[in-house]
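Q: Here's a chain of 146 amino acids. Please give me its 3D structure as tokens.
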Amino acid sequence: MLNRVILIGRLTRDPELRYTASGVAMTTFTLAVDRNYVNQQGERGTDFIRITVWRKLAETCANHLNKGRLVAVEGRLQTRSYETPDGQKRQATDVVADDVRFLDWPKDGKGPSGVGSGPAMGADSFNQDFSDMGTEVDMGEDDLPF
């Protein structure tokens, strides 16, 4: 059996950090993820997905992410049932993240940060100078691969 989810999107609000009664950190945020098709009006739909992060990664996300930041989240789907105060039964589906990657530059200009269980993606994590890499590629018609 396999339960893996990979999402890339932007935070719709600042993350909320809380602690359980036993002191375990938990952060939640909502990720806006664009659909890969457009409707008849030419508009792209968006899904708003609740993300839950635990322990040290939760604290790191709460301290370094904010509304609008672009992140990649890897984790698993988890459904839960609950009852509203007026007695209605509801179900909710969250992504429980075990890896969160920061994909853009923070507004303070200090560079991107990679967070999670995999290798970091931050600029200071690379032992390489990328300053000599150009952003433009000049390809003539003869250079095209098709």
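Q: Can you summarize the key feature?
A: Residues 5-110 form a domain with the OB fold (Dihydrolipoamide Acetyltransferase, E2P) fold (CATH 2.40.50.140).
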